[in-house]
Design brief:
Helix content: 25-40%
Number of strands: 9
CATH class: Alpha Beta
Strand content: 25-35%
CATH architecture: 3-Layer(aba) Sandwich
CATH superfamily: Vaccinia Virus protein VP39
Largest sheet: 7 strands, mixed
Strand order of the largest sheet: 5-4-3-6-7-9-8
Structural class: alpha/beta
Oligomer: single chain
Order of helices and strands: EEHEHEHEEHEHEE
Shape: globular
């Protein structure tokens, strides 16, 4: 597998970028890192849109962030909804390390696990699953993320995915419709959409 961010052991030189970012009245401090999505001095626009528009389904007070990168989605959700039990997963060991580090920097507790999709949380269910999915990994991976989400959600729980609609998002939305029997556009902004499917009771 090429050394893009959906890789277990990035080989790129470690370069760090420190910054503060504010979303929905919460300001957090981050260290982003090369070899992990999305390296730079700001939270990427797609993740920011997902964070800003996330509301818990209420099915269960737990959230899974699938493909957490350096942790912005998981950590902002925890900061905004402290009562939620938040778990962050990534196959990239550098992502796991920096999510833990950023959780410590912000004094937030999230469970961080190195996992190839759902492999390390088999048997666990969540109230919500959120993801800015690793499109670079290809449709086989992103479709599995959607298809396997059903058995990891409580009834009434929701899967929320953010993507550029004309750069792979359209096919993700179609797969969500086929898998869950429902899908809605929560928000549209600058070509980015947040799609939401609910596991029916």
């Amino acid at each position: 597998m090429s050394d893009h961010y959906y890789t277990e052991k990035p080989k790129s030189e470690v370069r760090e970028c420190r910054f503060d970012w504010r979303i929905a009245r919460n300001t957090l401090s981050f260290v982003s890192v090369s070899g992990v999505f999305a390296y730079g001095s700001r939270v990427d626009r797609a993740s920011e849109l997902l964070i800003s528009n996330f509301k818990p389904s209420g099915a269960h007070p737990s959230v899974l962030d699938m493909g957490c990168g350096y942790g912005p989605i998981a950590l902002f959700i925890k900061a905004r909804y402290p009562h939620l039990d938040v778990t962050a997963l990534d196959i990239n060991e550098r992502a796991v390390y920096y999510t833990k580090r950023n959780a410590d920097i912000n004094n937030l507790y999230v469970r961080v696990i190195k996992s190839d999709l759902y492999s390390e949380v088999e048997g666990r269910t969540f109230g919500d699953i959120v993801s800015n999915p690793p499109l670079a990994a290809g449709k086989a991976v992103t479709f599995r993320l959607i298809q396997e989400a059903v058995r990891h959600l409580f009834p009434g729980g929701a899967l929320q995915i953010v993507a550029y609609h004309n750069k792979g998002g359209k096919s993700l939305k179609k797969m969500m419709e086929e898998t869950f029997g429902n899908v809605e556009d929560v928000v549209k902004s600058g070509g980015i959409r947040v799609y939401r499917s609910v596991k029916m009771p």
